[in-house]
Amino acid sequence: MTDGKEVIIQVKQLKKNFGSLEVLKGVDMEIDRGEVVVVIGPSGSGKSTFLRCLNLLEIPTDGDILFHGQSILRKEMKIDKYREKFGMVFQLFNLFENLSVLDNVTVGPRRVKKIPKEQAEKQAMELLRQVGLEDKAGAYPSQLSGGQKQRVAIARTLAMDPEVILFDEATSALDPEMVGEVLQIMRQLAQQGMTMVVVTHEMGFAREVGDRVVFMDGGYIVEQGRPKDVIANPQHQRTKDFLSKML
Ligand code: ADP
Ligand code: MG
């Protein structure tokens, strides 16, 4: 492509209702390969629901999502195969407490991708090294700090070799002194060219790492743009109000 851009996700007039509650009311978005999109907005504005629609943890009520130009909502779509392309990192880590760190990282590749144990473990050790936790391979989640747990969760996500990683407030449950170590791993991934959609309240991260900031409120995208523009010079009153509470 001449401008070096490759659109991998196109969201078109996405709507999601829960019963009579309209949560997403018509969201449009395009995400390029390697782009880091930071989604901000008040609690209840539909940020998590948006992420969950992207990987079909929620089925949209209306609108469409195209992945490499093809609708993921078409009948013949293989949902499990599609979900494998997306990693998701949650606020509360969701590690398997009864498995060691190493087994947490290898269980997906072994069970889902049928990768042999030895190969899965070799790859897992490499990923644990990348997140600075090689020496914790034999530990159990209960023996780790929150920041370490989240770094294991990121290694586990990477082990599935996703095309896109969705981060849903990945640092919101951490003690303040552990936020930085997780943001640092996320920053490394961004520098390596990973495509990321990041819901966060960390405005420093949004400004330094985000290619784009999207402000959501009431089920709509209110405004979006380059982080320095949106954060320093918001155009809409609702964005101004939200940001003034963040600082
Ligand atoms: P955010 O992540 O921006 O805080 P959410 O996407 O979690 O917002 O939620 C948006 C709205 O949708 C909230 O009012 C929430 O209560 C509602 N909601 C989210 N998930 C469900 C669900 N599974 N069933 C019913 N309501 C839901
Ligand atoms: Mg949320």
What this model shows, in words?
Residues 9-243 form the ABC transporter domain. Keywords: Amino-acid transport, ATP-binding, Cell membrane, Membrane, Nucleotide-binding, Transport. InterPro entries: AAA+_ATPase (IPR003593), ABC_ATPase_HisP-typ (IPR030679), ABC_transporter-like_ATP-bd (IPR003439), ABC_transporter-like_CS (IPR017871), MetN_ABC_transporter-like (IPR050086), P-loop_NTPase (IPR027417). The chain is of the alpha/beta class and 247 residues long. The protein has one domain: Rossmann fold (3-Layer(aba) Sandwich), CATH 3.40.50. Helices cover 37% and strands 26% of the residues. The chain has helices at 47-54, 79-84, 101-111, 117-130, 146-159, 176-191, 203-209, 227-232, 237-246; strands spanning 7-18, 21-32, 36-40, 62-67, 70-71, 86-89, 164-168, 195-199, 212-217, 220-225. The chain has a six-stranded mixed beta sheet with strand order 6-7-8-3-9-10, sandwiched between helices. The chain has a four-stranded antiparallel beta sheet with strand order 2-1-4-5, covered by helices on one side. Helix 3 (101-111) crosses helix 4 (117-130), helix 3 runs parallel beside helix 5 (146-159) and helix 5 (146-159) runs parallel beside helix 6. The radius of gyration is 18 Å and the shape is globular. It binds adenosine-5'-diphosphate and magnesium ion. Adenosine-5'-diphosphate is lined by residues 18, 21, 23, 41, 43-49.
